[in-house]
Amino acid sequence: MLEAIAGYDPKDSTSLNVKIPDFSESLKTGIKGIRIGVDNDYLIEGVETSLVRAIQNAVNILDNLGAEIVPIKIPGKKEEWDEMWYVICAKEAAISHRETYPSKKEDYGLYFQDYLDFGHSISEDQYANAMRYRENIGVQFRDLFSQVEVIVSPSGGMPNILSEEIIRGPMSGWGPYLQDFDWHFTTLANLARTPALTMPCGEAKAGAPPGFQLMADTLKETLLFRVGYALEQETKWEG
Question: What is the DSSP string of 193-228?
């Protein structure tokens, strides 16, 4: 599917005009010698113990398959990632919808109305500061990827099932649930502009299985697939 949708789109200024690789070609070549970075403090802080154990078990499996596990330090702070990502996304969403919002506000859901209103409230200085932060995080990640090839991270998510009323309601309705919504793990990959692969890392006792995230340098999706495939073939987890 990725091979079908990947590629340059002249109508999308964010797409890259590069050759699309055969993502399945190297799936079965193994992961011996691949350097995988792990920040243990990052994995543990604010993460449920059961998920930490599941991720550490997955890392041990990758180690046994021949990968080299390398201690690293993830740059920045979780609170900063959330704030800067939210500023950037809300501001750019407001710009993208400027032809229809707020002139056709009634056509938008309550949450997105609040989101776009927030985007309109962001100053150019705030947006520029967030973009500078993003560039700095990107530089630090490029340095990390000179030391390792793949980085392991929790994948975050929402452990509670939200009602339709909350999902389609105003932003204020999300308040009680945000502390459990570990989106900083996925916003970091967005800020750093790194491809990421999320996959199960254990069995599901109830509901969704525990998951983790693999990150790699720009245009290194084939490497993520190799590592993910190797782990998948070594385990028999079922969601």
Answer: T--EEEEE-S--SSSSPPEEEEEESTT-HHHHHHHH
Residue extents of the structural domains in the chain: 28-234
- Nearest-CA neighbor of 89 among 78, 81, 101? 81
Collapsing DSSP to helix, strand or coil, 22 comes out as coil
In the chain, the N- to C-terminal Cα span, in Å, equals 21
Question: What mean pLDDT do residues 94-114 have?
Answer: 95
Place of tokens 């399945």: 24
Residue 135's alpha-carbon distances to 31, 55, 119, 167, in angstroms, are: 30, 29, 20, 32
**Neighbouring residues of 126: CB distance < 8 A, sequence distance ≥ 6:** 87, 91
pLDDT digits (tens, 9 = 90+) for 199-231: 998 887 766 778 899 999 999 999 999 999 999
For position 164, what pLDDT does the model report? Answer: 76
**Pairs from 42-48 (Cβ < 8 Å, separation ≥ 24):** 42/74, 42/153, 43/152, 43/153, 43/154, 45/78, 46/78, 46/182, 47/154, 47/182
Look at the block and give the residue holding tokens 């649930």.
Answer: 177
DSSP string spanning 36-94?
EEE-HHHHHTT--HHHHHHHHHHHHHHHHTT-EEEE----S-HHHHHHHHHHHHHHHHH
CATH dotted code for 28-234:
3.90.1300.10
Digit-coded pLDDT (tens) for 113-134? 999 999 999 999 999 999 999 9
Q: Is 153 helix (H, G, I), strand (E, B) or coil?
A: strand
